[in-house]
Amino acid sequence: MEAKKKEHLKLEKQSGLYFAIGMTLILGLVYAALEWKTFDQIINGTFGQLEIPDSLEEEIPPLVQLLPPPPPKIQVPEFLEIIKNDDPEPETFIEPTEANQNTEVASVTSIEFAEEETPEEVIFINVEEVPVFPGCEKSDDKRACFQEKMLKHVRKNFKYPENAIDMGLQGKVYLQFTVQKDGTIGGLKMRGPHQILESEAARIISKLPKMKPGKQRNQAVKVPFSIPITFQLQ
């Protein structure tokens, strides 16, 4: 039996092509709809413009200062009446207090000066008469002789503690003592790296002899003296 339609006229053979063409048209319409733009109509006319200055300066409003009211006017009477004083009071005369060539000078019979108090303690470098170390009585420079005798005393009585040697202790001990008014030694103060070295330095100072006390204005005073003792291992 022969087919009613011709074979080359069947639509089923080109359905894929038609489908592709239809999809292309639809996508084109959708893209055109999304990209569609409208513009407002331009109206010719005059518009306002905002003017902006190059620099902004603060405009300070003028200050209004209220002035105080003027003082009341003094009313002067039209006529002045002068009254004569028949019994005037004597004027008080004020004598000048400043001295001049006619001022009498009071005679001075005696002048008493206040005595300055002698301080209780004067340091070694400022005291007028330093303490006299035994053996420095006839020295011309008793201050230098005192220092020399002090160094000899330290060298003579110096002994390195054995326990300090075992422990490897060394350093400098700073001492300050005071030659009292009676020539004895007191007021010992120490500062060192270890108590063992401080004890040895105190033993050396305790062997100092009694001295002639220092004097300030011919009065005995306390005289502090400072000396360092160095402990150094060989």
TrEMBL record:
Pfam assignment, any one: TonB_C
Gene3D superfamilies linked to this entry: 3.30.1150.10
Subcellular location: Cell inner membrane
Main location: membrane
TonB C-terminal domain ranges (all copies): 145-234
Segments crossing the lipid bilayer: 16-34
InterPro entries the UniProt entry points to: TonB-dependent_transducer (IPR051045), TonB/TolA_C (IPR006260), TonB_C (IPR037682)
Alphabetized UniProt keyword annotations: Cell inner membrane, Cell membrane, Membrane, Protein transport, Transmembrane, Transmembrane helix, Transport
Residue ranges of coiled coil: none
Membrane topology field: Single-pass membrane protein
Family, per entry: Belongs to the TonB family.
Protein name (Swiss-Prot/TrEMBL): Energy transducer TonB
Organism: Croceitalea vernalis
